[in-house]
């Protein structure tokens, strides 16, 4: 029997921009993309819904989210930790 090797899960860092849902927060992740023609770096944002079981994260918190199994239709990430400032 072969051993199943777990792939490391993707982790992203972002800021909580909404916490009005129950057990879910919206995290905005910023990253730089390079323009294909002009080769200049452009700041782009994407929002992810992340599961927050104890509702301990609020708007303005910097957090780390990790990929997980689907929790609902849109929620495929879970909040792992809060980044201390």
Structure overview:
The chain has 85 residues and is mainly β. The chain contains no helices and 5 strands. It has a 5-stranded mixed barrel. A hairpin with a 6-residue loop joins strand 2 and strand 3. The chain is globular. The termini are far apart.
- Uncertain spans: none
Q: N-to-C terminal Cα separation, in Å?
A: 47 Å
As a percent range, the share of helical residues equals under 10%
General form: globular
SSE class: mainly beta
Strand order of the largest sheet: 1-2-3-5-4
Report the C-alpha radius of gyration, rounded. 15 Å
Briefly say what this structure is.
The protein is mostly beta strands and about 80 residues long. Helix content is about 0%, strand content about 50%.
Mind sketching the topology for me?
Layout: E1 11-18, E2 24-34, E3 41-51, E4 62-67, E5 77-82
Parallel strand pairs: 3-5
Antiparallel strand pairs: 1-2, 1-4, 2-3, 4-5
What tags apply to this protein structure?
single chain; 85 residues; mainly beta; five-stranded mixed β-barrel; 5 strands
